[in-house]
Amino acid sequence: MKLFRKLPGYMNAWTLLTMIIVVLILLPNITILISFFTEEAENWAHIQEFILPNLIKNTSLLIIFTGFLAIMIGTSLAWLVSAYDFPFKNFFKWGLILPLAIPPYIAGYTYNGILNYTGVIQKTLRNTWGIEVNQKYFDILNLPGAVFIFTLFLFPYVFMITRGFLQNQSASLVENARLLGRGPLSIFFRVVLPISRGAIVGGGSLVLLEVLNDYGVVQYFGVPTFSTAIFQTWFGMGDLNAAIKLSATLMFIVFFILVLEKFLRGRKKYSYTTTKVRPLKPIKLTKRKAWTAFSYCAIIFALGFLIPFIQLIAWMFLTFEKMMSSTFIELVWNSLFVSLVGAAMITVFAVIIANFARMHQSFISKAPARVTILGYSIPGAVIAVGISTVFIEIDNLLFNFYEMAGLDASLFISTSLFMLISAYVIRFLAVGFNSIEAGFDKVGNKFTEASRMLGLNVTKTFFKVDLLMIKGPLISGFILAFIEIIKELPLTLILRPFNFDTLSTKAYQYASDEQIHEASLASIIIVVVSAIAIYIFHKVLEKEPR
Amino acid sequence: MFIQIENLCFKYQNSSENTIDCFNLAIDQGEIISILGESGSGKSTVLRLLCGLETPTCGTIKINEHTMTDDRHFVLPERRGIGMVFQDYALFPHMTVAENIQFGLKGHGRKAKRERTEEVLELVNMTSLMKRYPHELSGGQQQRVALARALAPKPALLLLDEPFSNLDADLQIKIRGELKDIIKKTGTTSIFVTHDREDARAIADRIITMRDGAAYDWESICTLREEEQQQQPKLVKVKG
User: Does the keyword Cytoplasm apply (chain B) (predicted)?
Assistant: First the structure.
């Protein structure tokens, strides 16, 4: 009986579209999980015995050290910037997010280029002072080197989320602690760390998921992890089933991290929150302390952005004339094309799901939202394996149809751009979704209800009211998705059609062919585009006092 | 009876008890009913059920012999022909006063739209401000626009959810008199929800109180008032 009452509310295009999108996202992932238990792989026994232990060891070490360091650096910087006044503080507020503009794989080969035998440091030491250094101390192509790169270029996730929390939510607690006579260190450890646990855990798990997703750094640094192993078994050994089994294993690790995150956050999902948002009033630091704080921020900023950025610019000038050609223009065009189309699709899908989710308060409407987040947690290599399995299956099903239509390729859509763009949508849907969902949250349901009371149905209301009221979040969701796609490496490397290159794949190829200088032009475009977007976002976010 | 509500029950997803429990109410055409109750007594929920923004777990709602909700039917809110004035007015911030009012007048021709807009604006005495945006209006003005917007499509039933809670006390007294005149002029059957007895008495033809999710009529509220008066000690003026 209750069904009849509820049904009319669900009977519309939004429900249908949402369900279709959810199936599209789940299909590749489910395929992998099912194949893990059903398919046999010839090399699996060998992999399990000789490769898997090493993979797990490397992955755990990377995760533990990167996670710890990123949280230490991110949280301490967030606290400094929110609670104190010192020179250039307002610059560091967004400057310390800039390392996110440099994808770790680009940072990785740039640092190697700076530090190796022919790099600028050793060359200067040799030519100016005639010092020959022990190569041991300058070799970063190892596990600690990878941790160094990941930490420096991923800590902003922790910094950003924690700073946002501290700035708006912590004022009354921190001020109370001050009044109760606590010193700054005691406040940091006894008050700030515990109350921002949720934010720290949230940022930290983003860092870990990025580490698991990475292919470029670990491949270049020679630290075998799941991503590289999936590439190797698939393309090196030609054993897709073994790749699937590896992917499934990696998925289990991801699930473990997600469960751990839930557990660590506990019941206090958003930690301490108040509805009254009151900014924390910063304390002015005295001269010596102010310069210490400044130096700490400056060192991290220099290492995480300035140094690699300047190096890339220098290399770009060396190779600009050689690189600038019609093929390069084509690269830029390819990158723009896939990013624009991908981001547009993500925005549309995200709006559909977000609108569906807020129309109904039930399990059915909450589930799609969780599914989009699942896509973001699954590493690129895994999605690549899953989606190509599904697409090859579809091609097999459609084989007869292709023959009838007179197409000679037996693998039609699994060698097309369509597959790559679908993969982007699955992986980055959450990026667009989060922004749009937050927008809907802010606006609330009142206006929609008012419009429906005035006789407009859900869809009409959406176009005449809702869409106009979330214009801002819509645009920011689009831009965020765009940047993620333009930086993306593992998915693009695996799923791109033959002879189709983007800025990121080309930069990576040059770098792994030891043509670091040639990689700089493509890299610098990615970095500059991302940096501009980060700057705009920071300015927009700062302006909104709400 | 123009409006017939029978055995209405409703439970929010995260609560264990029924928020609305066997709610019965019959209303004549043109009557103004006020539902009085403490916060949390479920009075706003009744409005949301009436207009279809929430789905009841059981019970029926009929308006003018048309079934809105029963075990086999559920009419979507936009098809019910019910007008609502929200507590915070919910005027669309990106539309002018006139655009806000015309929003509910779809299907009318351009000329008919303009005429009806002018008509309702005149009714609430706001014609001079029709080009303004909501944020350029005072609280009382916003309230009148919200009322005009709800009345414009000539709803069979008008719902008002705590319409005075965002106004200061002086304005409240002035506006509630106006409100009653306006509603009576249009002859619209209305239900309005409030926690303020004076509001209820000033406007309503009949007062309903809510307790534990069910409705009680005026007599019981009177005895309630007496009980309360007995319980309350007389105020003694403090000598300076």
Answer: no
Does residue A518 contact residue A312 with C-beta atoms inside 8 Å? Answer: no
| Interchain contact, B57 vs A2, CB within 8 Å | yes
How many Å apart are CA A448 and CA A439, to the nearest integer?
14
Domain ranges of chain A: 58-224, 311-546
The domain ranges of chain B are: 3-229
Contact A120, A40 (CB under 8 A): no
Question: Measured between beta carbons, which residues in chain A are less than 8 angstroms from residue B67?
Answer: none
**Same fold: A58-224 with A311-546:** yes
Q: Which CATH class, in words, describes the domain spanning A58-224?
A: mainly alpha
Q: Give the pLDDT confidence of A430-457 residue by residue, as tens digits.
A: 888 888 888 888 777 888 888 888 888 8
> How far, in Å, CA of B53 to CA of A15, rounded?
17
Contacting residues of A for B79, CB less than 8 Å apart: 455
Residue type, B69: T
CA distances from B17 to A259, A543, B13, B14, B212 (A): 32, 44, 10, 9, 10
ipTM above 0.85, yes or no: no
The CA-CA-CA angle for residues A460, A464, A466, to 5°, reads 95
How does pLDDT run across A112-171, given as a tens digit for each residue?
988 888 788 888 888 888 777 777 777 888 899 999 999 999 999 999 888 888 887 777
Most confident stretch, A36-45, A176-185, B93-102: B93-102
State whether B55 and A465 contact (CB < 8 Å): no
A286, burial (CB in 10 Å: exposed 0-12, middle 13-18, buried 19+) = exposed
**Is B71 in the A-facing interface, judged by CB distances under 8 Å?**
yes
Among candidate residues B80, B88, B92, B154, the one with its CA nearest the CA of residue B117? B154
CB atoms within 10 A of CB B109: 9
Which tokens is B82 given?
A: 């019910």
The CATH code belonging to domain A311-546 is 1.10.3720.10
CB atoms within 10 A of CB A287: 9
CA B238 to chain centre: 40
- Out of A7, A447, A457, closest to residue B78 by CB: A457
Find out if CATH 3.40.50.300 is the number for domain B3-229: yes
Strands B214-216 and B206-211: antiparallel
Alpha-carbon distance A463 to A468, whole Å? 7
- How far CA A176 is from CA of A17, A170, A181, A198, in Å, comes to 50, 10, 9, 21
Instruction: List the single residue in A1, A362, A468 with the smallest CB-CB distance to B71.
Output: A1
Enter the tokens of residue B1: 């009876």
Give start and end residues of each alpha helix (H) in A398-499.
Answer: 399-405, 417-443, 446-453, 458-461, 467-469, 471-487, 490-495
* A7 contact B CB<8A: yes
**Is the CB of residue B1 less than 8 Å away from at least one CB of chain A?**
no
